[in-house]
C-alpha cells in the first residue's frame, strides 16, 4: 500500500483527490492537510504523526515551492498539481530531487485529454509557423497564464524558435491587448470567468487555413486518473518529472 497525504485537502481539487485516493485499493490515505480544517495544518505536523510515502499538493502558488522542498528533504515524494512555479524554482526542485535520490512529479494538468492536447500541439508546431494560445479558467484561479498554457508553449518551443512569422510591427493601444509573449514568441491570452473550470485552445494559422486544438474540463473528476497514475509512478521510481506526458 502507498501511504498518501493530500495537502490542500479542503479545496475543490483536494476533496476530489481525497475521494480518489480513498477509493483506490492500492493506496492508504494517511493525512488530510489543510489550514482550513484538515486532520493536520502542516506537512511537518502530519509527518510527525504518520508515515507518508507520497504527498499530493493542490494548495496555493505562494506555498507550493516551500512545501515541495520540505517533502524532498524529508523522505516524501511530492506530486504537484498547484501551478505558478517559476522556471528557476522548477530547476531547483529538479536538482534537489536528484541530490536526494528521490522522486518529484510536477504536472500543470492531470487530465489525460489536456495532456494529449499538449502533445498534439507540439506535433502540429512542426507544420505551422504561427500559433497563439487562449486559456480560460474560473475567476478564482490566482495565477495567469495557467501552468497548462505555459507547458504547452514550452513543448511547442522545443520544435520551433518563433511562431510570429511575417507578423507586422505591432502597437498595443491598450496594454496587454496581445496577451503575454512566452516561449518562442507564442502569445498567451488568459480569460477568468465564472462558469469555466478549465479550457484551452491552441490556434495555428497559415495562408488559407486555421487549425485549432481545444480541450474543456467539465468537472474535476477528470483529473483523478492522471493523479492516481502519478502517485503510482513516483512511488516506484526515483526521478524528476515535469509533465504527465512523460509517463503516459
If you had to describe this structure to a student in words, what would you say it looks like?
This protein is α/β, with parallel strands linked by helices and 248 residues long. The protein has two domains: 2-106 and 220-246, NAD(P)-binding Rossmann-like Domain (Rossmann fold, 3-Layer(aba) Sandwich), CATH 3.40.50.720; 112-217, Dihydrodipicolinate Reductase, domain 2 (2-Layer Sandwich). It is built from seven helices and eleven strands. It has helices at residues 12-22, 43-49, 61-73, 87-99, 112-124, 147-157, 224-236; strands spanning 2-7, 27-33, 54-57, 77-80, 104-106, 130-137, 180-181, 187-192, 198-206, 209-217, 240-242. The strands form two sheets. A six-stranded parallel beta sheet has the order 2-1-3-4-5-11, sandwiched between helices. Strands 7-8-6-9-10 form a five-stranded mixed beta sheet, covered by helices on one side. Strand 1, helix 1 and strand 2 (27-33) form a beta-alpha-beta unit. Helix 3 (61-73) packs parallel to helix 4 (87-99) and helix 5 packs parallel to helix 6 (147-157). The longest helix has 13 residues, at 61-73. It is elongated, with a radius of gyration of 19 Å. The chain starts with a strand and ends in a 6-residue tail after the last strand. The model has no long low-confidence stretch (mean pLDDT 95).
